Amino acid sequence: MSELVEKAEAVAVRAYAPYSRYEVGAVARMDDGREFEGVNVENAAYPLGVCAEKSALVAAVAAGYGPGRIAAIGITASPCGGCRQWLAEFRIPEVSFRREDGSIATYEAKALLPETWDFPDS
Ligand code: THU
Predict the structure, then answer these.
(1) Cβ-contact 31, 39 below 8 angstroms
(2) Rg over CA atoms, the chain
(3) What are the residues facing 39 on neighbouring strands?
(4) Is the pLDDT of residue 117 over 90?
(5) Where are the beta strands (DSSP E) in 1-122?
(6) Ligand 1 center from residue 40 Cα (angstroms)
(7) 30 CB less than 6 Å from ligand 1?
(8) Rounded-to-integer distance, Cα 35 and Cα 77, Å
(9) How far is it, in rounded angstroms, from Cα 36 to Cα 25?
(10) Which among 81, 74, 94, 78 is positioned nearest to 28, based on CA atoms?
(11) Nearest to residue 66, comparing CAs of 90, 48, 84, 45?
């Protein structure tokens, strides 16, 4: 959904990315319309940084939402492999992001990670 990607672009200015200078934003919309924002937050110990999608999902879960309740997410850029696993975990039906060429891509989370590893009895 392009509206969520545009909202994510507005949120990205609040990213904390002093090392890469690559600012990412994400906005997750719940089934009741509530929205949670996320930005990437980097750290001087580089691997400890957190991606924008993950921080939006963490905020949603902290507010009581989980799999089946997250209707859509908009991201400023194509999600990394680790974030694709996170998006799949929450079974998000609509994941939209801005492509390099400026167009908007929309996929079901699972389509972004074919044959996704999942917990055996989940
Ligand atoms: N980043 C995200 O926030 N989401 C992604 O899916 C890809 C990468 C962040 C991590 C790091 O702070 C910066 O972008 C450069 O990799």
Answers:
(1) no
(2) 14
(3) 25
(4) no
(5) 25-30, 35-39, 70-75, 94-98, 104-107
(6) 6
(7) no
(8) 18
(9) 11
(10) 74
(11) 90
Residue 59 token pair: 């905020």
Binding site membership of 17 for ligand 1 (Cβ less than 6 Å): yes
pLDDT value of residue 51: 98
- 37 belongs to the catalytic site: no
In 1-122, alpha helices (H) = 2-11, 52-62, 81-89
Mean pLDDT of the region 69-91: 97
Whole-model pTM? 0.95
Instruction: Assign 59 a pLDDT band (cuts: 50, 70, 90).
Output: very high
Q: Which residues contact 48 (CB under 8 A, 6 or more apart)?
A: none
Token reading at 33:
């319309």
* Residue-wise pLDDT tens digits, 8-51: 999 999 999 999 999 999 999 999 999 999 999 999 999 999 99
